[in-house]
Amino acid sequence: MKLDTSKAAAFIGAEAVAKFDADIKAAQSALENGTCEGNDFLGWLHLPSSITPVFIDEIKQTAKVLKENCDAVVVAGIGGSYLGAKAVIAALDDNFSWLKPSDSPRILFAGNNISEDYLTEMIDYLKGVRFGVINISKSGTTTETAITFRLLKKMCEDQRGKEEAKKVIVAITDAKKGAARTTADKEGYKSFVIPDNVGGRFSVLTPVGLLPIAVAGYDIAALVKGAQDMEASCDINVPLEENPCAQYAAIRNALYAQGKKIEILVNYQPKLHFMSEWWKQLYGESEGKDKKGIFPASVDFSTDLHSMGQWIQDGERTIFETVISVDAPNSSLTVPADEENLDGLNFLAGKHIDEVNHMAELGTQLAHIDGGVPNIRISIPKLDEYNLGQLIYFFEKGCGISGLLIKVNPFNQPGVEAYKKNMFALLDKPGYEAESKAIKARL
Ligand code: PA5
To answer: How many CB atoms lie within 10 A of CB 107?
Structure first.
């Protein structure tokens, strides 16, 4: 993975970026020594290097059971218990996998919304399909996931019988507390623990991400290796100018300090759409607090050049872009020559589609810079497990440092409780009687 911050730094000057050096070193030390706010959630920091081959084998063994016994596996989870696995699987999956036969079970994601239509349509599909469930919830009490699991557990038991269902239901949750743990222990499901000190949005390299990714048929050892190598590249002892996480944290905060309040993560590969969704959660939930924080947005180019491109080129100048560029495709296709050349495209004949895509990328970068949009560029050689592992750890560490630079606790999410309190009051959840009347009166 390569990071190029030069074109963004040109907007504000190297000194404006260097101003953050001392704070970055302090943030790195605070993370390393566990002296920062949220220090009970630093388990992600050296997580990659702590993953052993034995642990990877245990995950693979469980994945094998699900693969052998299921044609579909539903991953139930939301937020950090969903987006990491979704991002990696989407980045590696064939764009049209849902139309093609596969050796691995079809992975469905649920428990990430409360849509009656979504759940009904999924259940309709699962009728007559041998399916299993991975129930993921750190707290074990999240409403979206719990409703979904209640439906799926019953359906799976009705379909296979209670004893057989136990073989294909796996829980990933807290070691001791929460309804998901209670149910897993009572029913005797295979279960994995989400470490106490790893928050949801930093948990993709725990079983939360690794098990679904392994069931989907991808190489989790390579994913972990990529993360391990990035952990080494971003170590506290690596000089700042060679440390990509530190560089990224510095440039985005230098831009933020100069009024660039919105960071747009850009990709030129549809497969990276959900990597942006994962990144938005990581940065949004970590930094958006105390009335501070860069707003994380995302676009898929060149698709969105035909929609959001106008705003980015010409709208309010409060944005900067971080582009994830993939050096080479995993396949090969060229533009055909056409004798009649009615569309005038023969100047492209023989060129790879990816070359056209790259020229769109470079042309856009220059246009946006001319339009006043600082551009950061992250490039990876290709879309594979190793490079995704690199990206994951790079963004996690960059986020930890960055949150500390703006003096928030990057590892909590107090703001997400507000909607839950109101929803429970509106639904007459026992214990919410006091709030219920007042909340209902406001509608
Ligand atoms: O990052 C976080 O902590 C959150 O996004 C959680 O992952 C999300 O709310 C789901 O929580 P849980 O895993 O407890 O069901």
So the answer is: 22
